[in-house]
Amino acid sequence: MKLIRELKPKAVMLENVTGALQASNAMHRLRILARMAALGYDAEWRILSGPDFGLPQKRRRAILVGFRRGIMHRFSWPEPLAKNAPTVGEALYDLMAAKGWAHVDEWKERANGYAPTIIGGSQKKGGIDLAQPKSRESWRELGVDPGHYAKAAPDRDAPRDHMPKLTLEMMARLQGFLDDWQLQGSNLQKFRQIANAFPPAMAQAIGLSILRVLTGYKVDLEKEQKRLHRKSLNLKAVPDNVDPYPSDWDGEELTVG
């Protein structure tokens, strides 16, 4: 909110975990909208899902889009672009086969589904955690070992029942990054850059929808998505009784994250 107040952008886009739209966060969420209204912005929340934008991952994000008052009505949320997003096996096949694993075709058949949400690692543990405990079994059902990460694809002699770990390159592809995207820092830092990112295809779809409002430029989102990839609760109404600056306000700006 502080940046919005100081910079006064024409448009605002923020993303968060879907928990932001849970009933327990209703008042905090409405106060964010009320605060934006007080700053001269109309805004809407919505949940978007990764597979709808070609992502082989069940990643769902809560998105807030806002504009200076008077032009929000021009904005349309991007429609789903992918009828059938690639499965984990389809998305990672060439990377998993890179060292000649003899049983990679069987692994591909097993990995016939979407990945659970890749999480950003535990600051407390200081290591790489691919999955929360509740989603570890989902990874295993896809033939993936969710513990830590691999430095390379399985070699030719890996057994039929081998359950490979993902390399950083594989994780990046599941997040929708191009293969030539340059990550920086240590392996832990690279992992967190991947896991905490808003997937490029989802960000692009929203960004182009915002661009259309600001410029009138019509964009073929499906065409743009194909160009980007090498492979192929609406809560806008704020009740009048929601005070953006309640009497117990301590001066701290509200955050979406």
From TrEMBL:
InterPro entries: C5-Methyltransferase (IPR050390), C5_MeTfrase (IPR001525), SAM-dependent_MTases_sf (IPR029063). Signal peptide: none annotated. Its EC number is 2.1.1.37. Keywords: Methyltransferase, Restriction system, S-adenosyl-L-methionine, Transferase. GO terms for molecular function: DNA (cytosine-5-)-methyltransferase activity; DNA binding. It is an enzyme of class 2 (transferase). It catalyses: a 2'-deoxycytidine in DNA + S-adenosyl-L-methionine = a 5-methyl-2'-deoxycytidine in DNA + S-adenosyl-L-homocysteine + H(+). Pfam families: DNA_methylase (PF00145). One of its GO terms (biological process) is methylation. PANTHER family: CYTOSINE-SPECIFIC METHYLTRANSFERASE, DNA (CYTOSINE-5)-METHYLTRANSFERASE 1. This is DNA (cytosine-5-)-methyltransferase.
